[in-house]
Amino acid sequence: MRIVEMGERYGDIKHKAKCAGCKTVIEFQQSEAERVHDHRDGDYLRIKCPVCPRDITKAIVIGGYV
């Protein structure tokens, strides 16, 4: 089998976020980030910034609310 054109994973959500350190804006699939469980403030996604050594975090939206 040969993939002619790569599609997106079914159900994979695309996110956009900005690094607080260097202000780089990235776009990533939810499957590329680590999901961090936080029972106090709510779950969030964490991914490494490709430019500086910081982590970029983004709250997981459930039902349209942050």
Description:
Strands 3-4-5 form a 3-stranded antiparallel β-sheet, with no helix packed on it. A two-stranded antiparallel ribbon has the order 1-2. It has strands at residues 14-18, 25-29, 34-36, 44-48, 55-59. It is 0% helix and 35% strand. With 66 residues, the protein is mostly beta strands.
List keywords for this structure.
66 residues; mainly beta; two-stranded antiparallel sheet; 5 strands; globular
* Mean pLDDT over all positions: 88
Which oligomeric state applies?
single chain
Largest sheet: 3 strands, antiparallel
The helix tally amounts to 0
Outline type: globular
Distance between the termini: 41 Å
* Unreliably modeled segments: none
Structural class: mainly beta
The Rg value, from CA coordinates, equals 14 Å
| Element order: H for helix, E for strand | EEEEE
